[in-house]
Amino acid sequence: MSPQKKLLIPVSSRRKAVDDFFPFNLLPVECQLHVLSFLNELDKCSCALVCLSWSCLVRSWKLWRVADYSRRGAFHLGQEGLLVSNREFERWKSWVHHYTHHLVSRRASLLTLKASFDLGDRCNKWSELLSHLLDNVHCRDLSHLDLNWTFTLFEPLDLRVHSSSSSHQDSITKMDQVTSFQELLGKLTHSCPRISKMRLHFDWSDLSVSLLTRFQQLRILELKYFWVFKLVTPSTLQTLTKSLPNLKSLTLHILVPLRNLGISYTLESKSLEFLDVSPSRGLVFSCLKLPALRELRAKKIVRGITLDRRTRLRIQSRWPCLYHVLQQGTPKLQALNNERLLPTWREKSYGELTAILEQSCYCVQHLDSWLW
Fold first, then answer.
1. Angstrom distance (rounded) from CA 40 to CA 19
2. Sign of CA dihedral 81, 87, 91, 96
3. DSSP-assigned letters across all residues of 228-245
4. What is the DSSP string of 327-349?
5. pTM attached to this predicted model
6. What is the DSSP code (8-state) at residue 109?
7. Which of 5, 10, 164, 297 is deepest in the core (most CB within 10 A)?
8. Which residue range or ranges hold the F-box domain (predicted)?
């Protein structure tokens, strides 16, 4: 008996069956864009090769909301200024320029910008690259900025350059970094006034502080160390926090120079709910006016400097106990160094907080050591 012949299905019917199985093109354009928005950048580019309609979808500025220059090279364990071969550096540099051109050609509407470039690098001109990006994409709605302007993610392995470096040349480079950073920060104040989350290194100059206070929508702010070891004046820090009316979270990396030991700070903000000064060294508060603060993280870091008893007591006598500062200026405080506080912690003696205060308070009672 001859085998039964299979019926042939017309091509048009097969196409119809495929469309019925995956009716993506029948969705509204906004729904299609929403689905594609969950893909990473590489997958989006792959989708653009499927067909003409998908290629048009992928070209939409609505799909390009993130500019992340730090994602390339994540396998290097997040190291900054990593030395690589000249060939690898040129490949990475080429990728950076192609990536920038890609975002510009798509007329990206950025919500997030992450980058790590040495803005004082006159050879590679990273500052001009970022300025070019901001000038040619839509960044009015940018809300998240994560910028390390002191290091480039990769550095070429050029022994001749490193062997000829000097402290004088390093100082010139650092000043170039500050100047370029201030120029970029000024551009951001005009191009991206809606930034609500910012993480960057900060030089604490008067100009930089003035520019930073223009970001009135800031809610989360982290300011990290910079090379210049100069004093952050109490008035500067107080001006910054008072000038940001919507600030909810603040993380400070401040190093108080040894010549300025004994100075203390006043912090005032009506909106601040979270304060982390644990990365700082020598930062002591004499007064806190934080009516909305709910959590504080502070850590006492001993630098290993030996002081005689008279000098130590003279310095510490200027500082109040952290417990009394918190008792008077933080009525809504609920957590200290990740420890939940009892509702009655202000009414009783701080015996229950002794262990925590010994880790974070610089007063005479909680720092009985000649080692600073």
1. 25
2. positive
3. ------HHHHHHHHHT-T
4. HHH-TT--EETTEEPPTTTTTS-
5. 0.81
6. B
7. 297
8. 21-67
